[in-house]
């Protein structure tokens, strides 16, 4: 049986590391099982802030990957300050009072001269190249994945020029994502972002989002069909390591300046002071980039000696940390804009069999998922007493050797099942 061809336009692709690459790497892996032949289009010379060469082995054999060059402003910005460019490109933006003049300038340029984002110069040459390819290979469906949201402009142009069905996949929101406010946007730039977002949402044949909150937000802008397809988990060949003998709390991924739960540091400080055994057993493991603001905050509570910084590790190594840590920390910025953010790591956390301790805003999608799956506990930034009671309870279970999660209903979040949902959208006429 002839498979339906679909062109997937993405920016993040192996050897890119980090969470952004996982979503379409896994969709591409499973789409052929549902009668669909994925063709992937990515830049040939990208500027990835994180590299994970091990992910190259996960690219399915026989998949067509098209590559075309891109003009990357981050490469030129590196001449000003290589370290600051790399940090900002990772999404780690220091608090305004701690920003250097160079950082302020870079953020202003990024927000006002590169709309919708720093990959905008890839749009025109990509449209020219893909228009011909679509015609030559009889492709009827195009999917764009953002951020970077400039890729949606490629899809919009191809829809108009080539007459293809266009599906716009939003891994994160556009104008309401947390860091958007930090880009020092002029009023003109704000309006241009809003106008482009509206045009994309009203032009796409189908929209995909990763959370129900984002769906509700977009429904205020467009009447086009919107489907929620979350991120998920895949099967891993990583062997299960022995559990830490210490009471380890591990956070996998970046900790931004605003992702700083002082209530957690306060509670841990109190427990360290009140319980000598707790003070002896406690370890804090950070696997990924950590903001200096967060580290300074931890230090102000006298907890620096408990911190183990591992920086970025390969995806398989991150899985090992998830499986061996006593507790997995999931920390989100306490703001209205982050209610819709569901980190990709949450789903891998869920299958680790380790309890999740999450902090974030009230009524978030994360809270709903954790409660539905019984994979941990969720707190707001003011839940001091409840957080303390839970940590005492968890520490008691750790001492008894009974600390674990008791997950339910995880199967629907497997990458294969999620890909089946995607395939129905692709094949729908």
Task: Walk me through this protein's architecture.
It is a single chain. This protein is α/β, with parallel strands linked by helices and 429 residues long. The chain folds into two domains: 242 residues, Rossmann fold; 154 residues, Glycogen Phosphorylase B (Rossmann fold). It is 40% helix and 15% strand. The protein is built from 16 helices and 13 strands. The chain has a seven-stranded parallel beta sheet with strand order 3-2-1-4-5-6-7. It has a six-stranded parallel beta sheet with strand order 10-9-8-11-12-13, with helices on both faces. The longest helix has 17 residues. The chain is globular. About 4% of the residues have low confidence.
Please give a handful of descriptors for the protein shown.
alpha/beta; 2 domains; Rossmann fold; 13 strands; 15% strand; 6-stranded parallel beta sheet; single chain; 429 residues; 7-stranded parallel beta sheet; 16 helices
């Amino acid at each position: 049986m002839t498979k339906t061809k679909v062109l997937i336009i993405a920016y993040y692709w192996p050897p890119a590391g980090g969470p952004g690459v996982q979503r379409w790497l896994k969709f591409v892996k499973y789409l052929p099982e549902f009668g669909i032949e994925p063709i992937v289009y990515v830049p040939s010379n990208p500027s990835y802030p994180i590299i994970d060469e091990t992910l190259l082995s996960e690219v399915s054999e026989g998949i067509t990957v098209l590559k075309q060059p891109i003009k990357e402003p981050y490469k030129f910005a590196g001449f000003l300050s290589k370290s600051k460019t790399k940090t900002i490109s990772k999404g780690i933006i220091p608090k305004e009072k701690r920003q250097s003049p160079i950082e302020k300038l870079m953020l202003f340029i990024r927000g006002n001269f590169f709309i919708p984002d720093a990959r905008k110069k890839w749009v025109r040459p990509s449209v020219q190249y893909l228009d011909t390819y679509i015609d030559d290979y009889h492709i009827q469906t195009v999917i764009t994945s953002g951020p970077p949201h400039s890729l949606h402009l490629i899809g919009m142009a191809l829809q108009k020029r080539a007459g293809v069905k266009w599906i716009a996949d939003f891994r994160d929101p556009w104008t309401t994502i947390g860091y958007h406010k930090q880009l020092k946007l002029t009023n003109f730039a704000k309006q241009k972002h809003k106008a482009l977002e509206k045009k994309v949402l009203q032009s796409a044949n189908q929209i995909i989002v990763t959370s129900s909150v984002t769906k509700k937000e977009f429904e205020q802008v467009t009447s086009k069909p919107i489907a929620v397809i979350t991120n998920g988990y895949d099967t891993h060949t990583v062997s299960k390591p022995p559990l830490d003998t210490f009471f380890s709390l591990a956070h996998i991924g970046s900790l931004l300046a605003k992702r700083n739960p002082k209530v957690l540091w306060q509670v841990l400080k109190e427990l360290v002071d009140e319980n000598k055994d707790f003070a002896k057993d406690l370890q804090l493991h950070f696997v990924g980039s950590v903001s200096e603001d967060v580290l300074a905050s931890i230090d102000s509570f006298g907890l620096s000696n408990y911190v183990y910084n591992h920086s970025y590790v390969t995806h398989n190594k991150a899985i090992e940390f998830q499986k061996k840590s006593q507790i997995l920390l999931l920390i989100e910025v306490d703001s209205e804009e982050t209610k819709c953010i569901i980190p990709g790591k949450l789903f891998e956390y869920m299958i680790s069999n380790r309890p999740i301790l999450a902090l974030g805003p009230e009524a978030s999608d994360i809270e709903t998922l954790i409660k539905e799956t019984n994979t941990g506990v969720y707190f707001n930034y003011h839940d001091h007493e409840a957080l303390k009671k839970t940590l005492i309870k968890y520490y008691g279970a750790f001492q008894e050797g009974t600390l674990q999660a008791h997950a339910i209903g995880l199967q629907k979040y497997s990458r294969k099942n999620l890909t089946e949902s995607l395939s129905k959208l692709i094949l729908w006429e």
